[in-house]
Amino acid sequence: MRLLWAADCQDCGYPLQGGMPALYVDDHRTTAEARLFHFGMCRFPRWNTSAPVTFAKDAGVTWRAFSGGVTAGGQLIPALVVNPSFESAQLVLDDQVWTAAGAYGPRSAGSAALRLRPLRDGFPPRRSDSLARALIGDGVVAVAALTEIWSAPATGELIRLVHQSGGLLLVMTSAFGPDSPVTAEELERLLASWDAMARWVPLTPRRATAADAARLR
After folding, report:
1. CA angle, corner 98, sides to 179 and 53, nearest 5?
2. Which of 61, 75, 103, 195 is paired with 9 by a 20 to 30 Å CA distance?
3. Are 27 and 198 in contact, with CB atoms under 8 Å apart?
4. 164 has pLDDT over 70
5. CA 180, CA 39: separation in Å to the nearest integer?
């Protein structure tokens, strides 16, 4: 399954467009980070095992999210499906074998920090904590978690469903890219992907403020 998508260079920040990107990996002995750059202009492909980690400008990763309804236990629940990082992935070394994972995929530091669980093990329980909160605005739903916020357009019906459910299901997966279709069939495929991680996110007791709305755009 694909983990990296050529969106923006992780050094200069400009689009990678249709050219072949350079895959650059910083090896931290037991973990590693893989990133995409402009080939030649910003990086050449390399597996960096030296002690210093290469410096790159904070270009920021590209993400994409969409909302939809998911059937669980005979009930329709609202969901926000997010690919949080197109151009960056993590690797974990176990028994001399490297295993790749998305930024919030299985065994990643991000999934542990956000208390995500594999969706293949079943839908997560509806528990509340302070790690993440769901927000709703005019035609938009969002999740604020850790230092991130992800949002997507939402129908009035889905927003009402978030209200009724008291929150939404957050699904993190690297299995869709910039041009992937947003259909019911695609949603089913993503829910079954091997790296799909999820958690329940409670709805904040207030509507999004003007500051929240600015961040949701």
Report:
1. 80
2. 195
3. no
4. yes
5. 24
